[in-house]
Design goal:
By secondary structure, the chain is an alpha/beta fold. 48% of the residues lie in helices and 11% in strands.
């Protein structure tokens, strides 16, 4: 979409006949007062220029435009597109500008609000009574999304039928477009996953799904060593494939005491320095030790 910045009389713009976004009377009056004080709009409306009719229709920022007119502002700045937009496209833009908005972290909001010393400027900030009451009751730091580092994972469970799977993938990718990663699993594994979550929840008497999922992961980690059978044939003593084997399945742990680790690290450095082990494949030291151990008579 091509856009440009334009300046003109707000009275030349056409406001929406039907606008889902409403503003309470006291909020609107505060907006008018702010615009009158600033003698300008400090955030730009979004306007569609209908080339056919010549009309410029405000898709977003109707209240700001109306407030500018009521405040007697002769000229405002807006963002405009002249692209050919269908009614559906215009409605989608209108609704998205209204609905896709961030949320205030109350702890940060309170900190910022309290830094405003001038009472008139506090009124200018436009916080309503309900929000001010929430700020007054706020005692502890907020644990909102803004304060957390997190990733979103979408697990897509696919049916066995190819056509059904393709349809599910198409729909799922659309729904999971905001996820950081998308994993694919067989549809039959969905029931297994739900059953495992239910078992973990009931066993530990928890209702939070994330907590239950964490319990499943902890249980898996406790039994991860059993996965050695996935790559090692106990009968022949040979590997079942030529991929990589997790060390956890060998040592039944993914960590060791630092005192022991320091000894291993010094040994690895010495093995690399001697050329016995390549620096990029330090795990070869384990193979070297194992062969020496196996060559030693019991």
């Amino acid at each position: 979409m091509k856009t440009e910045i334009r300046t003109g009389d707000p009275r030349s713009l056409k406001l929406l006949d039907l606008n889902a976004r409403y503003m309470r009377h006291e909020q609107y009056q505060q907006l008018v007062a702010n615009v009158r004080r600033d003698e300008a709009l400090t955030s730009t409306p979004f306007v569609w220029h209908d080339i056919g009719s010549g009309e410029r229709i405000v898709l977003s920022g109707n209240h700001r435009t109306k407030a500018a007119i009521e405040a007697g502002i002769e000229e405002i700045t807006w963002l405009e597109t002249s692209d050919l937009l269908t009614e559906s496209q215009r409605l989608a833009i209108q609704l998205s500008h209204n609905s896709i908005a961030g949320e205030d972290d109350l702890a940060i909001l309170k900190t910022l609000y309290e830094k405003i010393e001038d009472l008139d400027l506090r009124q200018y900030a436009g916080l309503d009574d309900a929000t001010l009451e929430l700020l007054a009751d706020l005692d502890s730091p907020s644990l909102g999304e803004a304060n957390l580092s997190f990733q979103t994972l979408a697990i897509v469970f696919l049916p066995d039928d190819l056509k059904d799977a393709q349809d599910v993938i198409r729909d799922a990718l659309g729904l999971a477009s905001s996820s950081d990663a998308v994993w694919v699993a067989a549809l039959r594994q969905y029931d297994q996953t739900m059953a495992a979550l239910d078992l973990a929840s009931k066993s530990s008497d928890v209702t939070n799904v994330a907590t239950a999922f964490g319990l499943i992961l902890e249980s898996f980690k406790d039994h991860a060593a059993e996965l050695v059978d996935a790559w090692f044939d106990r009968d022949t003593g040979e590997p079942k494939h030529h991929g990589m084997a997790p060390l956890l399945t060998l040592f039944h742990t993914d960590a060791m005491p630092t005192k022991s680790a320091a000894i291993v690290e010094k040994a690895l450095q010495q093995a690399v320095a001697r050329g016995d082990v390549p620096a990029e494949h330090r795990y070869k030291a384990l193979e070297l030790w194992a062969n020496q151990y196996l060559d030693t008579p019991a």
